[in-house]
Amino acid sequence: MDTRYASHYDDVKKYDTKELRDHFFIEKVFEPGQITMVYSHYDRIIVAGVVPTTKPLILEGSKELGCDYFLERRELGIINIGGIGTITLDGEKYEMQAKDGLYVGMGVKTVSFESKDINKPAKFYLNSATAHKTYPTVRIDLEKANKVKAGSDEECNKRTINQYVHPAVCESCQLVMGMTVLDQGSIWNTMPCHTHDRRMEVYLYFDMDEENVVFHFMGRPDETRHIVVKNEQAVISPSWSIHSGVGTKNYTFIWGMVGENKTFTDMDDIKSKDLK
Question: Is the pTM of this model over 0.85?
């Protein structure tokens, strides 16, 4: 468990590239045969990658969580971006194809992950938030996700927002999670940009080859910074920060939000002319 502490924006504007990456960038999300975790003190979100190979991988409680099992006081959102895999929840199995999602409510004691083919392992991407109530587990494939079309060819940001863990699809305590797919020829996400002081957010970028990158923009609207992100890497975005990116080619990203409310449209829009 890699723990990241919160930073005030007055401090962040003094960070150099290394400091920005140390605080907000998650370089290694997926490691074969391992569970990697980052615990952020921004709304206590946990970001994790699970890549089972020769044996099942199991989520467990830890000192950082102060609990006997992982979901004792937490809920969980999962999207698979790899090969076919299986998630077992207290003995009940869920087969997960690529881009299938799963919401898991508080109170499930045993969560384990397996891959069908170790040569093409599943890559389970996890976002977990603290919870106060148990909601039912829901399997959400790409067809079941609520779809919102956004952007245009002219603005180079034509995309489909697939809402997985969202009030239109399933109940949750505070976690909202989904996947945005950019059309071919589109490279901008979330521009014009916004902030939402009620929620923090994490982006995982993927569907990129080794020749392409995304320039992820963050910071206060009048003190912007950028972090260069490669395939299957993630960025933590504080509630006070913009979160937008432009790629050298189209890509896909998973977004997860945790905080005060679940209202997807509750945001403070920022005009591009006001960015600095």
Answer: yes
